[in-house]
Specification:
The chain has 348 residues and is α/β, with parallel strands linked by helices. Helix content is 29%, strand content 22%. It is built from 11 helices and 15 strands. A hairpin with a 2-residue loop joins β11 and β12.
């Protein structure tokens, strides 16, 4: 890693995805599961829910001869492995599972899974594209308002030291005005109307909008889903969300390759005109996952079954907790009319 000043987008790209020493791409690394717990790692219920959604997509598309499941940001292939384990044989026989991940293919992965470093070609996929906690690791620049309230690009070195660079302009400035800018008001001290207080921070989500649009374009027909930490334009955090994770703990985001670097996603900015947005709690409930405890009477008639059901309910509760994983945003983007509304009440 160099210690030159650069924007957070460039620094994060090197820190996470450098070919030899990137946090995610260094040979022999543990992958995301070694540093933080995603919904995929909490319980097999999550893979089961994705399998249920895949079957709905399959039915809506008329059971095509070849059905794709593309996992973008696949980690070590845990989600695809879990889905393959629970799919009925008839569906699995037609399935073409594809992992998109910049790290090398892990040893021992199911040979049915195609492993690639880039998205499939535009219009080449029929089925379900699923991106769980992918967009939050698409690198973005960070801006901060200076003493005069002017948004400036934050520059950073590999040791995490920051300073303010030049004013934000062009497409990034337009994105901030449209998707992040807080309500403007006259300065309390009698300054220029519309001036912003110093020290406000934001992440410029334009690269994520573009990355998601590219992912959706891979579909000929089907459904694209992104599940991630998210916030809405009316409730953006005033100091941004940039942070790091290492060994299961949140740490300062230092772009030297020693930690994950992540920031919440403006999913409303990513959404296309036909998109639907739900919380993970709403989405998983629609797919049959909830945290209701089994009836106590089951303990008397089937103690082992009761223990299993109780464990499953606990995992479901964690996945759907509105103060935790259940508060994640799900962005659903149908391509073609057949896969619209698959998570609405009464979806096929």
């Amino acid at each position: 890693m160099t210690n030159e000043w650069c924007g957070w987008r460039e620094a994060t790209e090197r820190a996470l995805y450098g070919p030899d020493d990137g946090f995610y791409t260094r040979p022999g690394g543990p992958g995301p599961a070694g540093h933080f717990r995603t919904s995929v790692h909490v319980s097999g219920l999550y893979a089961g829910a994705v399998a249920t959604l895949l079957r709905r997509v399959d039915a809506a598309l008329g059971h095509p001869d070849e059905l794709a499941l593309v996992d973008v940001g696949a980690g070590r292939g845990e989600l695809l492995t879990g889905v393959l384990a629970v799919l009925p044989g008839e569906v699995a026989a037609r399935l073409r599972p594809c992992a998109v991940e910049r790290a090398a293919r892990p040893r021992g992965l199911d040979p049915r899974i195609d492993w690639r470093g880039e998205l499939p070609a535009p219009g080449s996929v029929t089925g379900l594209l699923f991106a769980n906690e992918w967009l939050d690791n698409v690198p973005v620049d960070v801006v901060e308002t200076d003493a005069d309230g002017v948004p400036r690009r934050v520059l950073v070195r590999a040791d995490g030291t920051e300073r303010l660079g030049g004013p934000v302009d062009g497409a990034d400035a337009e994105w901030l005005r449209r998707w992040w800018a807080p309500p403007l008001a006259p300065d309390a001290a009698g300054g220029t109307p519309g001036a912003l207080p110093p020290g406000l921070r934001a992440e410029v989500g334009r690269p994520r909008d573009e990355a998601w649009a590219r992912a959706v374009r891979t579909l000929r027909a089907g459904l694209a889903v992104a599940a991630d930490y998210a916030h809405e334009r009316g409730d953006r955090p005033p100091f941004g969300t940039l942070t790091g994770f290492r060994d299961g703990r949140e740490v300062s985001p230092v772009p030297d390759g020693s930690c994950d670097i992540t920031a919440h996603v403006a999913l409303d900015a990513c959404a296309g005109p036909s998109a639907e947005r739900l919380t993970q709690r709403e989405a998983l409930h629609a797919l049959g996952v909830d945290g209701r405890r089994p009836p106590l009477a089951l303990a008397a008639t089937d103690p082992s079954g009761y223990v299993r059901a109780l464990s499953s309910a606990g995992s479901a509760a964690e996945l759907t907790d509105p103060a935790g994983l259940g508060g994640f945003g799900w962005l659903l983007e149908p391509v073609g009319g057949a896969c619209a509304g698959l998570l609405r009440a009464g979806g096929a």
